[in-house]
Fold this protein.
Amino acid sequence: MQRYTKTAMLLHWLIAVMIVSAFFLGLTMVDIPGFTPTKLKYFSWHKWLGVTVLALAAIRLLWRQANKPPAPLVSIPPWQHKVADGVHYLLYFLMFAAPISGYLYGSAAGVPVVYLKLIPLPALIGPDPELKAILKTVHYVLVMTMAGVVVAHALAALKHHFIDRDITLKRMLPRI
Amino acid sequence: MKTIKKIALVSLMGVALAASAAVLKTDPAKSSVSATFKQMNVPIESKFKKYTVAIDYDAAKPDASKATVEVETASLDMGDPEYNKEVAKKEWFNSAQFPKATFVSSAIKSAGAGKLTVTGKLTIKGKATDITFPLTVKTEGGKQVFDGALPIKRLAYNIGEGEWKDTSMVADDVTIKFHVVAGQ
């Protein structure tokens, strides 16, 4: 069976876990009223996750150029391949656009990132209340879209595994 | 000389001497008083939107100069209205009970060309401490430009009580920066 490389698998699942964590942290943190130490911590963790996802996504894209994914399964009709390709392109786009929009949002809000409390990252844009409002909406729309696409992607994988009973999901998992 | 003439003469001399020390008017558009603090090691510079500065400065005799700064604690702008509301609460500035933070100088000494050492009383949230900090002064476009940075420890003034005493979240070190452009 032709599987994805171990590196591709690691990047896939690591990024997936981080995206899901960042998403739920994001939803929780904005609902905390006022200004509490917990809220501050969640904001920081959320941003660190986003920056890490961005870095890992870049590595993943580079890895994919040098290590092509397994060939499409012949048992799957071409239209499904086209839909899958479209969804995967969209996921790659969102994997970059979501954290970038978040990063710029934080910069426009005057709160740059000090990665892991150790490494100050450049603000890229200065504090700007108008941009802040725009980027807040952009970030929200992008992450909610990503949430929807991720759910569709996961459900499709499960459909292939349990209904079609093909190796689509197995290819992204190591031999256990 | 008759006594009354003596008194008049001495008073006139006193007024003449006092007139050489100039009370300067602050240009609010060009001046700022800000507090820079670190949360989760991220530096946040926030400006106080409402403050008054009274400077009585004589470049020839800095020792005779006086400076008073009064800041409205609830006017700190951290760029977010929700955070700005928080900082006025009891755990932070407690602006309801202590609406103003003040600095009143007790001594201003020359520390070389364009440099001053300012000593005075800083009162925040009802706590007063004696502090000394450096100030630079230069003349720009006919006005005096004063720049100074005053490092304080927020916990010394009980700023950030309860769960906020944790300095790993918001650091103890806070720098108050003055940039005052003033003229006659």
Remarks:
- The mean pLDDT of chain A is 96.
